[in-house]
Every structure is written in C-alpha cells, then in structure tokens.
Design goal:
The longest helix has 37 residues. This protein has two domains: 188 residues, no CATH class; 204 residues, no CATH class. It is mostly helical.
C-alpha cells in the first residue's frame, strides 16, 4: 500500500521555504539601508520607485512558479520521467520568451510606469537609471521562478532555498561592495540585483542538470518548438495569470483607497500590510508543502494521500495562524513601533491593529487552498474564485461599508480573503474529491 504523507513530509518542504521567505525582507532592509545613508534622499526614493515597478512586474509572472510546481508534482507522482523534463523545458522557453519581450519593450514599460507612479526631478531620473539596469535581470528572474517551481514539484525544497539564499546573499554583499566600497549609488543597487539573479540561476541550473541525469526519460526538441505541445501548460498558466492580476488589483485598490483617506491612513495601512506579509511568509511555506504533496497524490491517483496531505498542511497552517493572531494581539503595538517611530502614524495604526488579530485565521484558508489547487492544477477554479472574490465580494463590500472609513476597507479585505477560502473549500469538496471518488 502506498505510503501516506506525514508531518515530517510537510515540514521537509515547509521549513526551507519559510527560511527562504524570511531572507526576502532582509534584502529590502539592506537596499533601504545603503541608499538611506547616502548624501541625498532622492536615491532612496529612486530605489523605492524602481523596486515597486519590478515587484509589480514580476509578481504578474509568478504563475511560472505556481504552474510549474503543479504540473511537475503530478508528473512526479505518475513517475513520468519524460513529462518532468518536458515540464521544465517548456516553462523555461516561456520564461525566456517573456523576458525577451520585456527587454524589447523596456522603453514603453518605463514610460508607462513612471507616469503611473509620478516621481519627479532627481527621483525620476535615478529611478530610470535603476530600471534600465535592472531590466536585464528579467531572463534570470523568470528562469529562477521556473526552477524553484520545478524543484518544489519534485518534493525538494532544499534547492529552492539554495537558489533564494544565493540570490539574496549575493545581492546584499554586492550592495555593500558597490555602494559603500566603490561609491556607486542607485546604479550599484540595480547592478547588484542583476548579478545576484544570474548567480541564483547558475546555482539552480547546476542542480537541475544533476537531477535531469537521475530522472531518466527523454525530451524531443519538438516538445519545445511545436505550439500545440504547449496547450496544457498555457491553459494552466493563463488562468493563473488572470488570477494573479485580480489579486494585485485588490491590494492596489486597498492602497489607493487608503491614500484617498490621507497620508496618515496610507502609512498606517502600509505598516499593517507589512504585518500581513510577515504572516504570509510563514503560511506560504505550508502552502508550498500542499502544492508538492497534493500534486504528487493527484499524479499517482492516491485519494488517501490527497486527503492526508490537505489535512496535515491545513492543521499546521491553523496552528501557525492562531499563533500569529496571538502574537499580534500581545505584541502588535511593539512591532508597530519597531516599524515606525512617527508618533502620528503609530497612533492611527494602533486604531486598526485589532484587524491583525483576526486576519491570520481569516486568511489562512485562502493561503492553504491556493497551494492545494496549484498542486491539483485547478487553475480555472482558482481564477473564477479570485474574480468573484475581487469583483463580486470585495468591491461591493467596500462601497457598502465605506461609511466606516478605513475600518470599512479592512472589513472588505477580510471578506475578500474569507470568500476565497470558502469558495476553494467548496470546490475542493465538490469537485476535486468527487472526481477522485468517481
């Protein structure tokens, strides 16, 4: 009888991904620190603008990671060596194509981004410098998404950890060397990011070649050059792209709505959303575990393993979410003061801090089921639920409760997260499990 997933299996994947996630904000702190200690404040503003542009740009292509994980995990469960190689090859071809398009369109992208964000003077000039250097990281960044997703699908979270650590450690070291050692400014920060991404790609490529030799199977060139061979890959990833765009719209709307309430509310919401990101770094580790274990169970057609994987990942996610809620309740005010020392921002942030006590338990379901649905490659359902949650729940809730001000905005966001969790739980019970039982 095939073995069922265990708590150890969950933590074997979740723990390295949590560690790799924790290194991300550390990099942001170093970027801020090195530019924040330069002679002029506009350097810091320029890096902030540039980082925002690439954060938004690359987040839209995160489907490369999610889609690759689900497809790979299922082929791993089915012991399909050919399919594993094809999954990696096709995803890398798509990533390279997107990167080429981004580089070719760098001038109009930069123009649109600067108009949207509206920097002026020296901030705009140096943000442009940052953009036109860092855009050359696109091939490596998108390929790294693919490699991380592929290794997760193979139930291996150690290699993604090595890739992310290689990127972030190299980036931090080069930030310090270029800016402090060589006296560079924004160009040094951007160049550090480019070199770091290619360093991560080198690490991932070395490990990928080793794994390809062990997997066995064959991949014909026609699998990479024939359009119809990409039908399944593009079907999954197109739905994930639409889903990601809807998610980004919702959080952009939260930022814009907060801005219309004034600078203090905008700043307070930024602090609170950072606390949500802190929570997400941990919970995403269990979602990644669900992606890999569920995908393997689906590929091997093992209903017991599917149920067990979801149960274990959800159980640990709930434990951690309750812990975060308690942490925010007991120590949230201290954490807010750590993130900002502006008295007015602290005062107004503490007014809305109670939302963070409830938000982990509300959000955990949507985070975990994202992983379940990625592993099951149910991208269409993910797309539909996200669109419903964004446009039929979040927006109507905001306009219905906007008289509550920023409390109404957080209520709408809570309903958005809850509706995603409820919707995916319904689909999981009524569609995914029913199809297995049939």
């Amino acid at each position: 009888m095939p073995s069922l997933p265990t708590n150890r299996d969950v933590w074997r994947i979740a723990a390295p991904m949590i560690l790799s996630n924790v290194s991300v904000p550390l990099l942001g702190m170093v970027d801020t620190g090195v530019t924040g200690h330069l002679d002029e404040a506009y350097y810091l503003g320029a890096v902030a603008i540039g980082s925002t542009i690439f954060g938004f740009l690359y987040a839209g292509f995160n489907f490369l990671r999610m889609g690759t994980t689900g497809i790979t995990a299922q082929r791993f469960g089915a012991e399909d060596g050919d399919g594993l190689k094809i999954a990696l090859g096709q995803a890398l071809v798509v990533a390279a194509t997107i990167a080429l398009v981004l580089i070719l369109l760098r001038n109009p992208i930069a123009t649109l981004a600067m108009r949207a964000l509206g920097p002026e003077g020296n901030v705009a000039a140096f943000a442009n410098d940052y953009f036109f250097i860092r855009i050359w990281s696109a091939p490596a960044t998108l390929a790294n998404y693919v490699l991380i997703g592929w290794f997760l699908g193979l139930q291996n979270a150690r290699i993604p950890l090595y890739i992310v650590l290689a990127i972030n450690v190299t980036n931090i070291a080069l930030d310090l060397f270029f800016v402090i050692g060589l006296g560079m400014t924004v160009d040094g920060v951007a160049a550090a990011s480019v070199i770091a991404e290619f360093t991560g790609l080198l690490v991932g490529t070395i490990y990928a070649f080793r794994y390809m030799q062990d997997i066995g199977g064959h991949m014909r060139i026609a699998h990479l050059t024939t359009w119809k061979e990409y039908t399944a890959f593009l079907a999954v990833n197109t739905h994930l792209l639409v889903r990601t765009m809807a998610l980004m719209f919702t959080f952009a709307f939260v930022t814009a709505a907060g801005a219309r309430m004034g600078g203090l509310v905008l700043a307070a919401n930024a602090v609170l959303i950072n606390l949500m990101h802190l929570m997400a770094y941990a919970l995403d580790g269990f979602a990644h575990a669900a992606e890999a274990l569920v995908g393997k169970a689906v590929g091997s057609r093992n209903l017991g393993a599917l149920r067990r994987a979801v149960t274990l990942a959800l159980r640990w996610s709930l434990y951690v979410s309750v812990g975060f809620g308690a942490f925010f309740f007991l120590g949230g005010s201290s954490l807010v003061r750590l993130l900002t020392d502006i008295p007015e921002v602290i005062e107004i942030t503490l007014v809305y801090l109670p939302w963070m006590t409830a938000m982990p338990v509300i959000a955990v379901w949507s985070y975990l089921y994202d992983g379940v649905f990625v592993g099951a490659t149910r991208a269409r359902e993910m797309r539909d639920i996200m669109l419903i949650s964004s446009f039929a729940v979040f927006l109507p809730a905001w306009y219905a409760f906007r008289f509550l001000g920023n409390h109404g905005l957080w209520l709408a966001l809570a309903l958005f997260l809850a509706s995603r969790g409820i919707g995916m739980h319904y689909y999981y019970r009524r569609r995914v499990l029913k199809e297995f039982e049939a």
